[in-house]
Amino acid sequence: MLAIVETNLQFKRTPTRRSRTNRIIIHHSASADVSAATIHQWHLNQGWLGIGYHYVIRSNGMIERGRPENSIGSHSGPSGNGDSIGIVLAGNFQTSIPTVAQMKSLVELIKDLRSRYGNLKVIGHKDVMATACPGARFPWLELRARLEEKDMLAKLKLDTQVNLPDVNVVMEGKAIDKSVILNVDGKDTTYIPAVVLRDIGMGVTWDGTAKTVIIER
Ligand SMILES: [Zn+2]
């Protein structure tokens, strides 16, 4: 059973109930670690009913309740709010990456929501509005791999239609021998699951233009 920390936040009025739930929209707080109560105050100060997100995932992985899950959120504008659940991860993923504990909680939360609403699409705030949120370093590849329990780099091939032999690997700013990461073996190519890298604290992102897997702390 997923542990959600109840916050009992007081809204200016009861938020409107949401009639459709088709997707999950992910955000970063663009700040240091921050609580649902603090974000609630930020959003009250903007004249909103209260916190616009449904869930807040703290740096230590704790999941805090924001706006009631069945209500219309205020996180992704008119084109995003009506049919979505908004999840914010505390942190700024323009400059850093989510913690291992945060990603674990995010995956558990998404799986829990999908078990109740069906196979919700998972997108970023940037997919519905002109924003960098949830940040250039948010690890989409890792998230998708973890949700599907698949090898991240095998999935990369399906997603991007690149030939894996053309892929470069850069670790901490240096090009590395990709055979360390990709076990290229003729036609029977096998790949070391890059999710393992996150478990030892390394972030993995994909630059599709440069066809490069970027690994960094
Ligand atoms: Zn956002």
- Strand segment count: 11
Specify the biggest β-sheet. Answer: 5 strands, mixed
Relative helix content: 25-40%
Overall SS class: alpha/beta
Q: From the structure provided, what is the oligomeric state, counting identical versus distinct chains? A: single chain
Mean pLDDT: 87
According to CATH, the homologous superfamily of the largest domain is Peptidoglycan recognition protein-like
> What ligands does this structure carry?
zinc ion
Strand percentage, roughly?
15-25%
Strand order of the largest sheet: 3-2-4-1-5
Instruction: Output the CATH class name of the largest domain.
Output: Alpha Beta
Low-confidence stretches: 184-190
Q: Specify Rg, calculated over alpha carbons.
A: 18 Å
Report the span from N to C terminus: 31 Å
Q: What is the general shape?
A: elongated
Question: Helices and strands, in N-to-C order?
Answer: EHEEHEHEHHEEEEHEE
- In the residues, how many domains can be counted? 2
Written account of the structure:
The structure is a single chain. With 217 residues, the chain is α/β, with parallel strands linked by helices. The protein folds into 2 domains: 23-127, 3-Layer(aba) Sandwich (Lysozyme-like); 151-216, no CATH class. Helix content is 26%, strand content 19%. The chain has 6 helices and 11 strands. The strands form 3 sheets. Strands 3-2-4-1-5 form a 5-stranded mixed β-sheet, with helices on one face. A 4-stranded mixed β-sheet has the order 7-6-11-10. A two-stranded antiparallel ribbon has the order 8-9. A hairpin with a 2-residue loop joins strand 6 (168-171) and strand 7 (174-175). Helix 4 (140-148) packs across helix 5 (152-160). The chain is elongated. It starts with 22 loop residues before the first strand and ends with a strand. Residues 184-190 have low confidence and may be disordered. Zinc ion is lined by residues 27, 125, 131, 133. The site of zinc ion has 4 residues, from loops.
